[in-house]
Amino acid sequence: MPLKGAFINLGAGLLGALPNIVIFQFNPLRVTHTPALVQPPAPETGSGARDATQQPGQPNESYSFSLQIDATDQLASSNPIAAASGILPALSALELLLVPKSSLTIDLFKLSGDKKPHQHPPERLPTILFFWGPFRILPVTINSLSISETEYDQLLNPIRAEVSVSLQVLTPGQLAKDQEFARGAYKYSQGVKEVMAALNLANTAAMGISGGISLSF
């Protein structure tokens, strides 16, 4: 059985410490990813020439693809969740990837009647890993979701939809100090990329030899 892509929300806050895992029902047919250099700030007037090879950080990388979500098979097999709510559970899980964890939790101070002043630190988005096979496990933020619902049941629950996803890979410099797991995932995927580049060099050398081309290093 082929692997399925997935989002793993490490800080979901839905059921205690359990992560929210959103497995793709169908793998997208096409995935577009765009690596790009970090653009340094414009030089000040009269500061002289700037070395264009100097970079302020790791290259950026964005991904975009479309997901198909369909409850037809679940409805045919009398799945009670699909019968009651269609594909709303899957759509809701995707939408919550854009919601900070603090927006999902109950304020226990208010429930207990505590009158102490509250501090409101900036809300932080959850740590999300994009799983696209064993060689690409990347920390990301979901920039946007565009959801097109194309069919409904009698209760107006959507039972078929297409979701366009846009996400941004987070580099170690963009991750908080306590996000060691996400840092590890980035470094792992970067290490795999370096190994694959070395394998490509070996393939290039082999093709050069078989083609009668002399390669010298």
Question: What would you note in describing this structure?
Answer:
This protein is an alpha+beta fold and 217 residues long. The protein has helices at residues 72-76, 80-85, 88-95, 108-112, 180-210; strands at 6-9, 20-23, 31-36, 60-70, 128-131, 137-152, 158-169. The protein contains five helices and seven strands, in the order ββββααααβββα. The chain has a seven-stranded antiparallel β-sheet with strand order 2-1-5-6-7-4-3. The longest helix is centred in the last third of the chain and has 31 residues, at 180-210.
Walk me through the topology:
Blueprint lengths: L5 E4 L10 E4 L7 E6 L23 E11 L1 H5 L3 H6 L2 H8 L12 H5 L15 E4 L5 E16 L5 E12 L10 H31 L7
Antiparallel strand pairs: 1-2, 1-5, 3-4, 4-7, 5-6, 6-7
Q: Which stretches are poorly predicted, pLDDT < 50 over at least 5 residues?
A: 106-112
Indicate the overall shape. globular
- Helical residues, percent: 25-40%
Strand content: 25-35%
Contiguous helical run count: 5
| Rg, Cα atoms, Å | 23 Å
The number of distinct β-strands equals 7
- Note the main sheet: 7 strands, antiparallel
SSE order? EEEEHHHHEEEH
Strand order, largest beta sheet: 2-1-5-6-7-4-3
Cα distance, first to last residue?
42 Å
Q: Based on helices, strands and strand pairing, what is the structural class? A: alpha+beta
Mean pLDDT: 84
Quick overview of this protein structure:
With 217 residues, the chain is an alpha+beta fold.
